[in-house]
Design goal:
Length: about 160
């Protein structure tokens, strides 16, 4: 059994993004705002169904597992937690899904194995170097959520 601490959205933003941005150089901060975010939004728009067609969407901003624990099902288990939460929150919703971005072909392959579909991809150039991004989307269907999957326990 693996125990994970569940952070609130406020915790995640406060501790994660602020710390992340503080550690970046001014050049990297500028690149983040002027290049990465702009290109990311373009990819996001290409990858998702029109907003009028969606009842609910979750965007997995960051999903990471320490190298020594990779291949143990933790990442996939975390995705299942999000799926289960979406089902519990919106039993009446007909169309809902999860969006993720990948920055390597191996991550794209991993998400494809987990049932995501490749919806958009781009190669972007910037003064700090070129980068690739892929946008993947997984539509949640009632019939697809009935299968058993690993249980992750959260501890406060």
């Amino acid at each position: 059994m693996i125990f994970l601490r569940k952070y609130s959205r406020a915790d995640t933003f406060s501790e994660g993004w602020k710390t992340f941005r503080k550690r970046m150089s001014s050049t990297l901060n500028r690149w983040w705002d002027e290049c990465y975010i702009v290109k990311r939004e373009e990819l996001f728009a290409q990858a998702l169904p029109r907003s009028s067609e969606l009842d609910s969407i979750r965007v997995l901003e960051i999903l990471g597992v320490l190298p020594e624990f990779r291949g143990c099902g933790i990442g996939e288990g975390l995705v299942h937690v999000v799926e289960d939460e979406m089902v519990a929150e919106g039993a009446n919703m007909k169309k809902r899904g999860i969006y993720v971005e990948a920055n390597s072909e191996s991550n794209v392959e991993m998400y494809l194995r987990w049932g995501f579909e490749l919806k958009a991809e781009g190669h972007f150039q910037s003064e700090l170097g070129d980068f690739d991004m892929w946008g993947l989307y997984k539509e949640l269907r009632e019939s697809g959520l009935e299968k058993e999957h690993a249980t992750l326990q959260f501890q406060p």
